[in-house]
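Entry 0007
Protein: Cytochrome P450
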Amino acid sequence: MEHLWLWLLGALAASYTFVFLILKNLNQWWFITRHGRRYNLPPGDMGWPLIGTLLSFLQAFRSGRPDLFIHQFAYKYGKIGMYKTYLFGSPSVIVTAPEVCRHVLMNDEQFGFGYSKATRILTGGKALNTVPRPEHRRLRRLIASLISGNEALSLYIGHVEGIVVTCLEEWASMKKPVEFLSEMKTVAFKVLLHIFIGANTAAFIDRMEKLYNDFHLGFMSSPVDLPGTTFSRALKARNELIKIFENVLKEKRENLKNKVAENRKKDMTDLLLEVKDEDGQGLDDACIIDLLIGFFFAGHETSAHSIMRAIMFLSENPETLQKAKAEQEQIVKARPADAQHKGLTMKEIKQMEYLYKVIDETLRKTSLAFTLSRETKVDVNLNGSLICISNS
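Output (structure tokens):
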């Protein structure tokens, strides 16, 4: 019996050693073996094989306090502003010190956009975040005027106002509390669908929103395409979205061919089909689809969170709310009594000087992206730590 207890204690000790001293350090050992010891990395935790520290990252993110993930490093290793880890399939360095962040984000010679493998796969090979820099500049020149500026906004004012007013009326008629962020995500999605592809049926909107929910979750996952995984569901959602957009483009090309589109308002996809660069080159269907997928992804969550934050800040600052409301009321009172158009106009939006300040202050106080990712182009010395080139 005594030998059995000794054997069990030995097995437990061996298991502990294997799990916490070998497996837990495998990522770090692999990095050192691959790159040698010339890289003086900051302290930190590279986590378990393959998944690294992804589970603790997701746990903190889903708790509503993503900053807890960073606090864990600060608690263990001190508030030094730099920590090594392993996230989304790659060895990484987390930088939190403002002056170091500024250096990383503003130094284009040493750093480039650094998206996870899952993000690059899901956004597609012709998206803004994956194309080479010259093509990135070309695409930005082509689409900048289509998605921003007064001309673009004037095309969509009526669409946005109609959707928002309808949703507000629906909420007012409800006899239960409204979960504001969830509702704003739906509003943002309705607006985006209407602006980008002219869709407004409830069944189609519901289907697209479900696909994008699966698609969105894949960005915070390891790029493992196995049945039942988050990444696998995201890939399936992307393939479904591609089919939908292919059908949209096919229908719109037929409309252009038959001149059906001349008698209706154009949406973003119509404009993308027509746009040409200085050499007369347009966008192929694969590029348009990747751009649309990216637009929906970028505009959906960020718009909803920005509006939610603005409402929160206004409710916490009643004087600011009253000034913003008074400005809106003054604009409405200034409308001619015989005005046929009852909705917002571009001229009225330009008169909302105080509201613009409220929006700017909301964006200043709100961090819409929890992290910004960069890749090293060369070996970089940051605060005494030598960080190796990403593709070495």
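Curator remark: Residues 100 and 383 are 8 Å apart (CA to CA). The mean pLDDT is 82.
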